[in-house]
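During the second year of the project, the team shifted from modelling isolated chains to modelling whole assemblies. The rationale, set out in the original proposal, was that interfaces cannot be judged from single-chain predictions alone. As a representative example for this report, we include one of the complexes processed in the last quarter. Its constituent sequences, exactly as entered into the pipeline, are reproduced here:
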Amino acid sequence: MMDFWNVLEYAAWGISGGLMLWMLIDALRVGAEHDADALISSREGSDELLAFQEPTP
Amino acid sequence: MAKTPYAPPEQGALGMVIDALLILALVFVSLSAPLWVAQLRAPSTSAAVASADAPKPTWESLGQNAVMAAQWEKLGKDPSAAAVIINNRFDYAVNPVKLGLTAALLVIYYFFMLRISEREYREVIAEKFDR
Amino acid sequence: MSTTAPHHGINLRKVLGPIHVWGLGVGIVLVGEFMGWNFAVGKGGALAALIACWVIGLLYTCVAMIDSEVTSTVAAAGGQYAQAKHIVGPLMAFNVALYLVLAYTMLEAGNAFVAADLLKTVAAQMGHPDLDSRPFVVLVITSLAWLNYRGVFESLTFNYVITAVAFVSILVLFWGVQPFSDVSLLRHADLLTGLPYGWIGVIASLQFGMWYYLGIEGTCQAAEECRSASRAIPLGTMTGMITLVIAASLTWYMAAGLMPWEYLGQAYTPLYDAATLTGSVGLKIFLFVGTLFSTLASANGCINDAARAWFSLGRDRYMPPWFGAVHPRYRTPFRSILFLIPIAVVFAWQVPLDGVITFSILAGLLGYTFMSFNVVRFRQLWPLGSIKRGYVHPFHPLPAAVLFMLCLTVFFATFLGYADYLISILVFFMLASVWFHLHRYKFVKRGEQFTMPWPRPRGY
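Output from the structure prediction step:
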């Protein structure tokens, strides 16, 4: 018998699948559209360190 | 003291995929191990629970006072259901061999990790500051 | 050596204040009051769980003190990972990052499990006894991963709101059981049974006592995204600890006064059960919402933290650099977020809740052990005054020594009853370390990993 909870189960599978697909497609698109080196160009602590290396008292 | 910085090799796409999958596999295999061990032991313990169930348990035989019994019942557990929970006790008898083995693993793990880290750290500092 | 030129790569966004740090820290941990802490009751009885709450509170006070100092100085995504890299060395850093990834991913799996199990319980109470909880596990994990994928500010603001609601639900339940009136529902006199396992049970229960606070140190994962890390991190962490101590005490008091310890020691959703016992439908609904929200807030923070630790590994090539990518539009470590989804799902499906929690605790514990010697070394290599510290913790090296001793005790506590889990996680880290040293480290640039504008460490 198909009741409210069964519908909820299918909805959960469906929404999860949709979100997963959205993320995968977006990730693949970003990978294809952008230069690989630009994507990994972030550097550890690049500038906030200078911001809080204020003059030492 | 000028040194040429260490130039790492470039890794191909296949190598990257293999590395990622390898770590994934290592996580799954080593962390599922306790479950397999538990499954191997399972038959004997469930048999023990079954035999303990043989005489129908009552709240008195389970050592529960009136207030406890009332709360168990509000939580939807009758004496037989509660008996499974109540009789499922930990065994804190320490097996000295196993304890020694575990302690040795812990010490060896930290010892070698810190030794190798120290070696790698000296290399990093040398390359960073000797230029 | 200092690179003063502003860097023009794609970086993580700097938008967070102390309130987000509080939300991130407490958000991850507060779920510990709704589930998991009560396994400490199972290991040693209700009184043992209370002692564990205080003893482990001391452990975490040490962690918070030490971590605030080191983090407010080494402000970078990856938190303790970046600390280990600058202070102890690359292999240690690799291990620390894996501790973080495992601790948070396992906690995330536990959260998803409890959220789904709660739905299953409600479905059963409403006449549908065999709800399949698996799709709900996946739904929790993917939808929160999606939120994280879309942007850190949105997901942490969301966290703040649902954490606050969950916290209020504990207070309301406390008020609802009328602890200090004549008609109080609490029955401590009849339900507290002393120490069923004796004092060894008290030690054994320290393991799950960790669950009252585990993850509070996650606040420093957000360091790189804080507007002012040196202010936001100590402030957010300390207020977070205070919040947790209050919540933990209230939770223990209510639960121990409502449930026999044997039941409490194995419950998946103890506070929801406590609300059920009050007989009030309103409280039951509120605690359903509170439990659900706390698991979601925690899972959300876990995805944030685990992905950032994994991202840092990729950025330094400790793992394939492909994982070190930042999304050009959302500025999030999107590939790391995606990669960790299947791990969380599989562990939530397969491993029993106490097992998942034990892995999370052990990964955390290995990290705290690291912190204890890390801070001693930090003070040796860069004595006070040699670099600018955002915060200096008092009584050094006492907190480090206390932390180290408590960590050893908790390892022993875990050995009691969960020895197989302890052994398997140690074997995992050994194998991973061998793999890293013999194979992976050759792809890592050596001097470049050291990114802090600090002078040469003393003695090197």
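The helical segments of chain A are 4-33, 36-39, 48-52. Chains A and B do not touch (no CB pair under 8 Å).
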